[in-house]
Design a protein that fits this description.
Length: 247
Amino acid sequence: MNAAPADQIRLLDLQALDTRLGQLAHKRRSLPEHAEIASLEADLTQHRDLLVAAQTEESDTAREQTKAEQDVDQVRQRAARDQQRLDTGVGMSAKDLENLQREVASLAKRQGDLEDVVLEVMERRESAQERVTELTGRVGSVQAKVDDAVARRDAALAEIDAEAASVTKEREIVAASVPADLLKLYDRLREKQGGIGAARLNQRRCEGCRLELDITELNEVRAAAPDQVVRCENCSRILVRTNESGL
């Protein structure tokens, strides 16, 4: 393939732009905020799960407290009715009064036991409420950190994308000035050779593979016409000759 030396040198400008686009893409993928957000979101999920568990426990103990208080109230009402009957004693035999006294005493003990249950449930509910309050604060704190990291990531991405858009436009201009067949070869080699399709021959060394040409390869390049597109024997990339090639 033949191409004017100026068109071949223009490939170096194109390669520099493509290299910068590759660097920007890598920078975009490897922003430290990505890992920071992933870690914070994992913490946030864990804290939210703990919060849901605490809220569930608080809700369960609230229902349990209501039930226990209802049990106490039922026993208290029954005891009050029995005590009223005992106080009046109308139409009751001595044996009935004795039985009623025993029932009142039994209900008093039952009421005491149930009130102890209410106190125990209230303590557990209070503990659950404190846990809910604590975890709510933690979730809010971690969420704030996530929001901050997301804002920093988005700002960094916007900056990268703006530069990438600018470089892409510049690349389009440069690529339009390169002959179609040369551009096609360059793009094919760039895709095959890890993003580098053209490399400068600098002081007898290919800047693509970083290897120095041996004497036979160097003589072949020297003998090539200025408009001949030469390739590196080691990496197959287009070798662009300049005044610094050492030929």
